[in-house]
Amino acid sequence: MRTPLFDLDHTLDSGQVFRWRREGEWWHGVVRGRYMRLRQDGDRLEVDGASEDMVAHYFRFDDDLEEIYADISKDERIASVIDRFRGLRLIRQDIWECSASYILASYSNVPRIKKMIDSVCRTYGQEIEEGAFSFPTPEEILEGEADIACCRLGYRADWLRGYASMVYSGEFDLYELATKDYRGAVEYLKSVKGIGDKVADCIALFSLDHLEACPVDVRIARAMRDIYGVTGSYNKVASYARRHFGRFAGYAQEYLYIAEDPSRKVRSCSCTPGTRSSGP
DNA sequence: AACCAGGTCTCGA
DNA sequence: TCGAGACCTGGT
Prior knowledge:
CATH superfamily of the domain at 95-207: Hypothetical protein, domain 2
CATH architecture of the domain at 95-207: Orthogonal Bundle
Shape: globular
CATH topology of the domain at 95-207: Endonuclease III, domain 1
Strand order of the largest sheet: 1-2-3-4
């Protein structure tokens, strides 16, 4: 299919989704229980295992990226980051998978998050293709309670089971969640053990279409301090970012996040002599 | 080998 | 309402 402005590598490598892996030029993943493969060549996207409509919805091709860039380019710094990662799009994730995944993501790092989620899928999900598992439903997680230890989730295991139980019983209603506005959704989400300000913002942004949500993790906090001189409590920094970047603040956040990736970070003048602190 | 990570919880002021 | 500590585990 032909795509609007889009960069598949930047999008799948930006740390918003955890279940894609690259093999050669193909990306492999499971979305809403379907195994799919993707390959990009210029503005052509080769899709295997899903309809074009589904792909367009998933990658938010309905977002006008140029309009969003124009809107969030409030200063030179963000403009240059956008320029570096042009085509990166937010992804429209499934609400249950996204929320459960970000509960596991707390106080960890992307490689480990991927492993935890992979092992949860292997332990509780269905094998839909050889080696490819679906993300388990709340019921599937509750059924195999005894196996949780082998997923190495640490203290997040109780949060995940508790959340699965709330969703399964109907105490927490994902359909009701989807009808709420940004503030209401965040407030509702925070009633779940394991979901605080940051995870609630991730869920709002990545699965509830609240593009003004601006999750502030360590990287974003660092960027906001270094670039804008903003520090302090979560809500102080996040609300500053929402005011500064406007209604698409979540997009600005994702570009700053990928730019702060330590493995991509351009090293500034480490070759300058005389600054090493070699021992006596 | 320390330090750190897509933070949250609890508790005390 | 806010700040301080504790916290499973594994990556770097």
